[in-house]
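Hey, can you fold this one?
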Amino acid sequence: MLRISRYLISIIVILMLVAYGIGCAGEKLPTAPGGSVTDYFSLTDNLRKAGATVEAAGEVTQPFFSAQGKVTIVNGSDVQVFEYENATAADTEAALVSSDGSSVSTSMISWVAPPHFYKAGKLIVFYVSESESVK
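Sure. Predicted structure:
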């Protein structure tokens, strides 16, 4: 059985607040503790305010996203954050992600664990996790 710390629960809540999932790209998102999440700085700021440990860990590219991503370690878990020039650009690419994350545009992807995509402002946040409670 997986033990979930209160920090991991905070991350889950923040990521749920980041977006209701990729399909809510055009809707107004709720305000996260400390303010709304619209860019990389506000995401990391809100995670820290919720008590999470957040560390920058370099850059990443994904063939299905045009933006350069940042690997961010949140309480020991890798989270990829892609920041676009504006929300419209992020919305356009977010619309290419299937509802279950198994494909992005014409790319079919075999993940090592279930993928989780979230969209807020000009961000697409992505991580892979086995745990159903880390959504």
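The longest helix spans residues 6-18. Let me know if you want another pass with a different chain boundary.
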